[in-house]
Amino acid sequence: MKNILFIIIIIVSFSCAEEKKSIEEIEIIPQANSDTISNKIPVLNFATFHMGKTSDANSTEFDENDRKNQQDAKRIAEMISKFKPTIVCVEYPTEKDSILNLEYNEFLKNSSQPVSWYGEIGLVAFPLASMSGLDKIYGIDHKMGYNYRIAGEIENQIDSVTVNNYYENPFEEYPELGSDMDTLNLLEKLKLMNHPKFLDFLIVVNADILAYAGTEDNFEGADEAAKYYQRNLRIYSNLNRIPMTPDDRVFILSGGSHTAFLREFFERSPKYEMVDTFQYLD
């Protein structure tokens, strides 16, 4: 079970024995640039790790109170501000929007001072929203538990070979993604996390691989994976509750696996069009 837990946490802290390419050598597949599309709402769907203590199991070592880290995070916000968002959404429960905006309003009173509230929300989303002249931000998260350890807790009678081989070397198909996060600066980490191949990996490791696990005539793995799909669909539904017009520009800051699922929904959306994240990470 330690192996399975490691794979889940590997979202933000991982290494691989395979020969690695540098961040610059990984081929970037551009997303559509919606600046040329008038009938859809542009969305900058941005993956991050959690830059502080959260209730999320997937966190990484990052001192949110370190001055250099705070300055680096603000530079990321400045880069993203070129997108000119009119709506900023974060991974925070929708039903706690009043708390979220109370903290944001406190930040606005002295926006020159860094705030590490809720990690990346205070460090990136607050300054970004302030730079963009916004008076509020939106939480779109919906908490739901699921058991990502299920494959190691049951006698797998579906395909234990595939499951075990995958957990043994999850980067076999994408060795170029097997970078040691501790060697990367903040910008490099975020570039890696927003790479399309890495986002694909996050869906497999968090959900799809569980469909290979189950007991005879049962679907324990698939059912747990479905819970994670459901959580992300509910996050997407929360986004759709926000009043918008075609003139809006939406920025979403969330953990990598949520970004990965949202990307799938946006690619088929009749309402939204994703912009190329890497256009704003130079």
Poorly predicted regions are 1-21, 54-59
Order of helices and strands: HEHEHHEHHHHHEHE
Helix content: 25-40%
- How far is the N terminus from the C terminus? 39 Å
What percent strand?
5-15%
Q: Count of DSSP E strands?
A: 5
CA-based gyration radius? 19 Å
Main sheet properties: 5 strands, parallel
Pfam families: DUF5694
InterPro entries: DUF5694
Write the SSE topology:
Blueprint: H1 2-9, E1 41-48, H2 67-80, E2 87-93, H3 97-108, H4 120-131, E3 138-141, H5 150-153, H6 160-168, H7 186-193, H8 196-206, H9 220-240, E4 250-255, H10 256-267, E5 272-274
Describe this structure as you would to a colleague.
- It is a single chain.
- By secondary structure, the chain is an alpha/beta fold.
- It has one domain (2-280).
- The protein is built from 10 helices and 5 strands; from the N terminus they run H-E-H-E-H-H-E-H-H-H-H-H-E-H-E.
- It has a 5-stranded parallel β-sheet, with helices on both faces.
- Helix 2 (67-80) crosses helix 4 (120-131) and helix 9 packs across helix 10.
- The radius of gyration is 19 Å and the shape is globular.
